[in-house]
Write a structure and sequence with these properties.
The protein has 464 residues and is mainly alpha-helical. The radius of gyration is 21 Å and the shape is globular. It contains 18 helices and 13 strands. The longest helix is centred in the middle third of the chain and has 20 residues, at 216-235. The site of alpha-D-glucopyranose (GLC) has 6 residues, from helix 2.
């Protein structure tokens, strides 16, 4: 791999400049430092953005900032049970927080989505917190933080919110549109795959972190088994599976049926027929009643390969797909967030005609370098390091001159994003995370999980 050391050194310097302090201690990083655009909330610490900074810091051995962040988030977690619909539900962790000065004293101000555009709730925050807490514990060997009464309670509150009460009867998790990294309307409501992978990783982390005799342990084990089985069996798409769906019988009633979700073959979009290579596969973007979203979402697929939500064969097939469809999924700047873009009438109806999410821009088919660390982790897990090295080299050749832009536009990601900010922290941290993982592949275990024994003995939805 030929990455210039001064490029990596510059990235560390920029990452360090983004650190936020609270009462003298480092507690997070700002989302971006672009002097040319109004900050809005980009001067705050976003939970999902900091997760990428934390990956870089943990890999380098800087664990204090991560511990402080974990503490701050546990303090800010919504804890009161209230029926006021305008208040965050108990267990929710904030999308972001700011440090402000009140009467000469610093205070932390959380945002649970109340101030966000379109008021979207951050379903992913609690999962990132769990994933980081587990990585911190593994990196430091310090089990006392996770084992403290405060942290055990915080873990239980997240679980209560996610698994205790619900309307639906699938193992997957039902969420509103735009409730995670994609925080605008994009047709990612229902059972978006990206969220299911975070849910799965969050449950795996909680299983390790909660006391062995905790009453949630058996519920986690059972849910993990059903969830993995459901995802592997029903979300998976490769050429053979596509052919099965193409020949599906519909309107089947009862238990012993093949087309469990009543997917109409006519809903298979034209692009997917020629796009799925004969070698390679991926998990579909979404699956619900009468609905399969065939789009490829990178974060979930990479995450599934890292955390063993994908079985070994599926994980390799995901990397094969990336290799075979390199121009579409990596192109001139890694990594395509979602493929393909919604265009014309689909864009109008599914995004609500959102100009920021126009075709091949931003969430709608833009390219996001923050995903590099996950690409490296997935590559290491599947023994395909050369793919991540190639992707990192592509990014390195352009990122410093592109001032660490937030995202890139166009079918191949050649253009700096229409409204992209410069000096976007998770772009910088994504590069550093990838670089560190490729240098120290053994450290991928901070974020990976081994094959879950529970999967083997689980039963599918149509067998219960
Ligand atoms: C945008 C992204 C979101 C990110 C935030 C800060 O809103 O969609 O995922 O957390 O910017 O970078």
């Amino acid at each position: 791999m030929t990455i210039r050391t001064d490029f990596i050194e510059e990235a560390w310097t920029e990452l360090e400049k983004s650190i936020i302090r609270y009462r003298g201690e480092p507690v997070g990083t700002v989302a971006a430092r672009d002097p040319s655009i109004e900050a809005l909330n980009y001067d705050q610490c976003f939970t999902r953005d900091f997760a990428v900074s934390a990956v870089a810091f943990l890999l380098r051995g800087d664990t204090d900032i991560v511990r402080n962040f974990l503490n701050v988030l546990a303090d800010l977690q919504s804890r009161d049970k209230h029926l006021d619909c305008f208040r965050p539900g108990r267990g929710l962790m904030p999308a972001s927080f700011a440090v402000e000065s009140r009467d000469g004293e610093e205070v932390l101000l959380p945002d649970f989505g109340e101030h966000a555009i379109a008021r979207v709730p951050p379903v992913d925050s609690g999962f990132w917190w769990l994933i980081l807490l587990r990585a911190y514990t593994k990196r430091t060997g310090d089990t006392s933080l996770a084992g403290s009464a405060k942290f055990q309670q915080a873990i239980r509150l997240i679980l209560e919110l996610c698994i205790a009460s619900r309307f639906d009867m699938y193992p997957t998790m039902l969420v509103p549109d735009g409730s995670y990294m994609i925080d605008r309307r994009m047709g990612v409501h229902g059972y978006p795959f990206d969220i299911q992978t975070l849910f799965h990783a969050g449950l795996c982390a909680a299983q390790e972190l909660l006391a062995e005799d905790d009453e949630y342990q058996s519920a986690i084990k059972e849910r993990l088994g059903h969830l993995s089985y459901h995802i592997r069996r029903y979300f998976w798409l490769d050429f053979q599976r596509l052919n099965e769906i193409y020949r599906y019988r519909v309107e089947e009633y009862g238990r012993d049926i093949l087309n469990a979700f009543n997917i109409y073959p006519e809903s298979i979009p034209g692009w997917v027929m020629g796009w799925i290579p004969s070698r390679g596969g991926y998990f579909a973007g979404n699956l619900g009643p009468g609905r399969m979203d065939f789009r490829f979402f990178a974060q979930g697929n990479l995450m599934a390969a890292v955390t063993s939500l994908a079985d070994a064969e599926q994980a390799s097939a995901i990397m094969d797909l990336i290799e075979q469809r390199w121009n579409d999924l990596i192109g001139e700047m890694p990594v395509k967030l979602c493929f393909p873009a919604l265009e014309a009438q689909d864009w109008r109806t599914i995004t609500g005609a959102d100009p920021k999410n126009s075709a091949w821009s931003y969430h709608n088919g833009g390219n996001w370098p923050f995903l590099l660390w996950l690409t490296a982790a997935a590559a290491v897990r599947t023994g395909r390091e050369e793919l991540a090295e190639r992707a990192l080299e592509t990014a390195a050749s352009r990122l410093a001159t592109a001032q660490w832009a937030e995202y890139f536009d166009g079918r191949d990601g050649r253009l700096v994003g229409k409204e992209a900010r410069a000096f976007q922290t998770w772009t910088i941290a994504g590069v550093l995370g990838a670089h560190e993982i490729l240098r120290h592949p053994e450290l991928v275990e901070l974020f990976s999980f081994e094959e879950n024994a529970a999967v083997a003995c689980s039963v599918s939805m149509d067998e219960v």
